[in-house]
Design brief:
- Two copies of one chain form a homodimer.
- Chain A has two domains: 27-207, NAD(P)-binding Rossmann-like Domain (Rossmann fold), CATH 3.40.50; 213-311, 6-phosphogluconate dehydrogenase C-terminal fold, CATH 1.10.3660.
- In chain A, 47% of the residues lie in helices and 10% in strands.
- Chain A contains twelve helices and nine strands.
- At the A-B interface, helix 7, helix 8, helix 9, helix 10 and helix 11 of A face helix 7, helix 8, helix 9, helix 10 and helix 11 of B.
- Chains A, B: The chain crosses the membrane at residues 23-44.
C-alpha cells in the first residue's frame, strides 16, 4: 500500500535565498504523467523545488517509468486520494478528460487546493466545468461559474513525441504560458498557479478563453491539421524525394491521433474559421500565379508572409517544439 | 582585366589515391553564385577537388563575396567567356533563367563541355531548351530534342536563406540528386555530370522529367505554398502565441519570393494537381471531425499519415535544408 504523506514537509516558498520564485505548495499532484506531465515533474526538480510530487494516471507502467525518471516521487492509485493531500493539482490529461479531472480534484481536495491544467483548448473545458456545476445538484455552488480555485492554463510547449520517456526538464523554459482567469477566480489560487508555472520557467500571459482558442486555432491547431493532410498526400515512395521542407511541414503529423482528435473537436468553431482563412489565402496565392510572368500580386502576398516570418523571434533556451 | 586560364591544369580524376571520385573537369563554371552555387563551390573544395572554379553572376558584389568565402577562384564577366574555357558548367540561376543560361553555355563552350543545373523543376526547362533549338534556325540541331550535352539535375537541398553568405560546404552531403537524362543524352556528359554531383556527396537517382515534377510538386512546391499561406494568416500579434508547430510549418515561407514565384509557375500543372489532393485530404479530415466523439474515421486518416511520417528516414550528415 502506498503511504501518502500525512504531514506535508514545510513549504520552500519562504526561503529568501532561493534563486527563483518557488510555489507555496509542498505537495503537487500531476494527473497524466506523459510528455507534458513528466516534463513538469522534471522541471520542478530542475528548478530546485523541494516539495513532494505525486503522480496519478491510468497506466501503472507509465507511472513506474515516471518514478524511475524522477518525474514523480510517488504514484497514487486514485486522483481522489492524491488530491486530498495536495496543495496544487496540475491536470495533464487529454483535453476531453480535463474538466472531469479538475472537478474530481476539487471535490476531494482541501479547501486551499489550487488546480490548473495544461490543455490546448480553454473555452470548452471551462464550459464543461460550468455545466458540471449546474448539474451537480444542491451541494454545488449555485452560480454557473467555473470553479474559483481552478486556474486554466496552457503552456505553449510540446512535441510530436508522446510519453514520459520523452519528457524534458527544460521543456517550459522561456515558453509562454497562457492563463485564462475570470472574475470569479480566487486570488490565492491565481497566485499559487502563477508561481507554479513561473517556477517551471514560463512567461505568463493572461487571455480571455475564447481569445486563447481563436489564436491557438491559427498558431497550433490549424498547423497540426495541415501537417496531417500534407503527410497524407505523400506516398512512401514519393517520400524518398522529400527533404527539409517536407521534414518541417509534416513533423507534427506524427503526433498522437487521439490527443489531436480531442483538441480539434474541442476547438471546432475556431478551427473552422482558421481553416477558412487559410483556404482563402491559398486561393489568393494560386490565383496570383496566373498573372504570368510578372506576378506582382503573388510576390506581394508572398513577401508579406515572408516578412512576418522573418520578424518572428522564438528562441526558448529549451528544445523544440 | 581578368586573366582566364589558357592552359587548364591537369585533371585530378586520374589520381588513383583520391579518397572519392573526382570529376574529370579541370575547370568548372558556376552560373549564379548564391546559396546553391556557393555551396557547390565550397563542396568541391571540401571534397579535395583541385580544379579551377569560375563564377558568373549579375551582381559583382555577390561574386566578390563568393571569392572571399572561397566558393569560386575567379569571377568572370560573361558566361560566354567562362564557358569557352570550361569543362563543366553548372547553372544555379532561378528556374526561369536556366534554359537561356544552358543554351548560352553550350553555344560558347568547347565540344566536350558538359552542362548541368540545379533547378527545382525539370520539364519546363527541357521544353524551353527544345523550343530554343527549333527556333534557332538552320545551324541548330534539326530534331526537337534537348541538347545532348545538358544533363538536367536537381539536388534536393536548399534553405529559406538566400545568398552566398549562407552557403555551406556540406549542403549536398547525403542528399538525393535527381538526374533526368533522355535517350539523346551524351554518355560522356552524363558520366561527367554524374561524377560532379557524386563528388559533392549526392546520391544519384534518375527520373523522367515529368515524374520529377509530379513528385517535387508534392514534396517541395506544395509545402512552400502552404507555408506561405499559413504564415500569411497569422498576424504579428498572434505570432506571440506561436511555438514549435508554427516555427516548423512556416520556416520555408521566408524563402525568396521571386525564386519561388518562378518555380511554382514553371510547375503549375503538377502543383495544381498536388493542391487538389491536399484540399481533398483536408476536407476529409475536417468532415471526419464531425463524427463526434469517437471519430474513428478521423483517427484512421491521422494515423495513416502519422505512420508514414514516422517511417520516413532523413538524416543527411549536412545541416537542415
Amino acid at each position: 500500500m502506498i503511504e501518502l504523506p500525512s504531514d506535508p514537509p514545510p513549504s520552500t516558498a519562504t526561503a529568501q535565498t532561493a534563486p527563483q520564485p518557488h510555489i507555496a505548495a509542498p505537495v503537487v499532484t500531476i494527473v497524466g504523467v506523459g510528455l507534458i506531465g513528466g516534463s513538469i515533474g522534471l522541471g520542478l526538480k530542475r528548478a530546485g523545488w523541494r516539495g513532494t510530487i505525486l503522480g496519478v494516471g491510468r497506466d501503472p507502467q507509465c507511472l513506474q517509468n515516471a518514478r524511475r525518471r524522477g518525474a514523480i516521487d510517488q504514484a497514487v492509485p486514485t486522483l481522489a486520494r492524491a488530491a486530498a493531500v495536495s496543495d496544487l493539482v496540475v491536470v495533464c490529461t487529454p483535453v476531453d478528460r480535463i474538466a472531469a479531472n479538475v472537478a474530481e480534484a476539487l471535490a476531494h481536495g482541501p479547501d486551499h487546493l489550487a488546480v490548473t491544467d495544461a490543455g490546448s483548448v480553454k473555452a470548452a473545458i471551462l464550459r464543461d466545468l460550468r455545466l458540471m456545476g449546474e448539474t451537480a445538484g444542491p451541494r454545488s455552488r449555485n452560480d454557473a461559474s467555473a470553479p474559483s480555485r481552478f486556474v486554466a492554463a496552457h503552456p505553449l510547449a510540446g512535441s510530436e513525441l508522446a510519453g514520459v520517456e520523452h519528457a524534458r526538464d527544460d521543456l517550459f523554459l522561456g515558453r509562454v504560458c497562457v492563463l485564462t482567469p475570470s472574475p470569479v477566480t480566487d486570488p490565492d489560487a491565481l497566485e499559487r498557479v502563477s508561481a507554479f508555472w513561473t517556477t517551471l520557467g514560463c512567461r505568463l500571459v493572461s487571455l480571455d478563453p475564447e481569445e486563447h482558442d481563436r489564436v491557438l486555432a491559427l498558431t497550433s491547431h490549424l498547423p497540426h491539421l495541415i501537417a496531417s493532410a500534407l503527410a497524407g498526400c505523400i506516398t512512401p515512395r514519393d517520400q524518398d524525394f522529400a527533404a527539409g521542407a517536407y521534414r518541417d511541414l509534416t513533423r507534427v503529423a506524427a503526433a498522437d491521433a487521439g490527443l489531436w482528435r480531442a483538441i480539434l473537436q474541442a476547438n471546432r468553431a475556431a478551427l473552422d474559421r482558421a481553416l477558412d482563412l487559410f483556404r482563402a489565402r491559398l486561393d489568393q496565392l494560386r490565383a496570383a500565379l496566373d498573372d504570368h510572368p510578372s506576378a506582382t500580386r503573388f510576390e506581394h502576398l508572398w513577401n508579406e508572409a515572408a516578412q512576418r516570418r522573418r520578424d518572428w523571434t522564438f528562441d526558448p533556451p529549451g528544445q523544440p517544439d
